[in-house]
Amino acid sequence: MVSVTLLLSLYSSVENFQTLLQYLL
Known about the structure:
Layout: H1 2-24
């Protein structure tokens, strides 16, 4: 279950990063 939480956290980070990139570009 811990791995699932980590995976979700990582996915969230990537998604936020992509959104930030889109905002900058």
